[in-house]
Amino acid sequence: MVEEASSHAGHRTAAPRVTRRGFALMGLACGLWGALAPMARAAGQIVVSGVRLGGNAQSTRLVLDLGDAPHHQMFNLAEPYRIVFDFPEFDWRVAPEAMPGATGLVKSLRAGLFQPGTFRLVVDLSGPAEIQRTLVLPPQSGFNWRFVADLVPTSREAFMARVAPGSENVRPAKANEPAVTERQRRSAAARPVVVIDPGHGGVDPGAIGVGGVYEKHITLAMAKQLRTLLLKSGRYEVVLTRDRDIFVPLRERVAIARRAKGDLFISLHADSHPNRNTRGLSIYTLSEKSSDREAQLLADKENKADIIAGMDFSEESPEVTGILIDLAQRESMNLSAQFASLAVGELDRKVRTLDNTHRFAGFAVLKAPDIPSVLLEMGYLSNPDEVRLLQQAQYRDRMADSMVHAVDRYFDQTQSAQRP
Ligand SMILES: [Zn+2]
């Protein structure tokens, strides 16, 4: 009876009824449901079984099918236009291929764990729009609980007026981190700390490949395999920047590495390319100047992870980037390049690599000034063969094994150089 998000002919006549009842329910949603819901689902997370979009550029409806009434917060973000919904941790059971595509005012939707306790839905807009109403509908007519949000176009001015000045997005500041490198003070006898950074996660899926394969899942699987092999050697301590499907801001990844006093930082990614034939692994180190246009485009793409996840960190200005790179000790830069070339040597024998395998670009995640850092693009999810390989634990083990050899050789070289 209450009509679904769809653009069929009945939509217009059904909508006003929803609206009137909806306003009453909206009051409930903010007050009663918001207050009662946490008790009602104390036993577990709310299951989300469906997400739908319907309507047109004048009015677009978003619907979530849920096992219970959620409370939510929402806010706007600009450049690009986004509306962000934060919910309690959901048990999200919507398959990637079941996510709706561009509809009306909505360009795309992204959903995932944003931080412990917060599940985030990011609505990318084709232009400035506002939420006309949200409703929480109790089960009826064969439907479960539904969360409904109706979007209508608005002016840029009105949209910008609702952009909170960065308040919701910034996590509590961590204690000041020492700017001085800890690595140099440590004895060569201590076990080196290898920080593995599985790219993307939670609300940020990363590249989406053939068959709806998410980069964030490939990177996490590879990170765990690499951790296992490194630990097995008994030579290293290993820290992961995330070990589950959760969003971690780029700066936080760097901060985790620095807090862990990392000796080596390995960020794991997989790319996609409009040309399906493109395939092969590549490895990047930080540079102010990208080695080529493709490298620059890739860095731009990877650096957008925070925007995709609904963070309001505007890109650092070129001046700041320059300063960060100036701060980066020559030694770190050289060591990064040294590790990258060892890794290329090992990987080249085991997996398909791109020409000029070692490349340079300004990745945000490589900007720890005192930790040698590389970013591994394991391959292309847009290539049908490579996406199949990257999904195979056996193939990833082969890459991980090569990386362990490279890590071994790297620390053999650098630790012996440190001995008196
Ligand atoms: Zn990536």
Assign the structural class, choosing from mainly alpha, mainly beta, alpha/beta, alpha+beta, or little secondary structure: alpha/beta
Average pLDDT rating: 81
Order of helices and strands, N to C? HEEEEEEEEEHEHEHEEHHHHEEHH
Q: What's the gyration radius in Å?
A: 24 Å
Q: Determine the number of helices (DSSP H or I, runs of at least 4 residues).
A: 10
CATH class of the largest domain: Alpha Beta
CATH architect. name of the largest domain: 3-Layer(aba) Sandwich
Q: How many domains comprise the coordinates?
A: 2
> What ions, cofactors and ligands are bound?
zinc ion
> What is the helical fraction, as a range of percent?
25-40%
Q: Using the alpha-carbon principal axes, give the shape.
A: elongated
Strand order of the largest sheet: 11-10-12-15-13-14
What is the CATH fold-level name of the largest domain? Aminopeptidase
Strands, total number: 15
Low-confidence regions = 1-42, 167-185
CATH-assigned homologous superfamily of the largest domain? Zn-dependent exopeptidases
Share in β-strands: 25-35%
Distance between the termini: 80 Å
Short description:
The longest helix is centred in the N-terminal third of the chain and has 30 residues, at 11-40. By secondary structure, the chain is of the alpha/beta class.
Description:
With 420 residues, this protein is of the alpha/beta class. It folds into 2 domains: 11-161, Immunoglobulin-like (Sandwich); 183-418, Zn-dependent exopeptidases (Aminopeptidase). It has 10 helices and 15 strands. Strands 11-10-12-15-13-14 form a 6-stranded mixed beta sheet, sandwiched between helices. α3 links the parallel β10 and β11 (237-240). α3 crosses α10 (393-418) and α8 (330-348) packs across α10. The protein binds zinc ion (ZN). Zinc ion (ZN) binds next to loops.
